[in-house]
Amino acid sequence: MRLDKFLKLSRLIKRRTVAKDVSEQGRVWINGREAKPSSTVKVGDELTVQFGQKLVTVRVELLSESTRKEDAAKMYTLLKEERNAQETDSFL
Q: The domain containing residue 12 runs over which residues?
C-alpha cells in the first residue's frame, strides 16, 4: 500500500494530500529511511512521522483498502511519541 494512502486510512493524518505533502518534505521515515508518498508500506514496518516538534513512531499491524473510523487505530501500534529536545529546553 502507498505510504500516503496508509497515513490517511489509519487516520494518522486526516487528508491524503496533507500526507503526500508531509512525505515530500522529508518528515516521514519507513524503517529509518526517508520515504516518498509512493513508498510501499508493509505489515511490520516502523513508520516515524514528524508533526512539528513531535516525533511519532508506529508499527504497521494491518493493511486494508478501506476502514471505518473505529477500526483505524487497529492498523498500527504506537511505539514511541517524543518531543524534540529544543522544545522542552525552551520551557525551562
A: 3-90
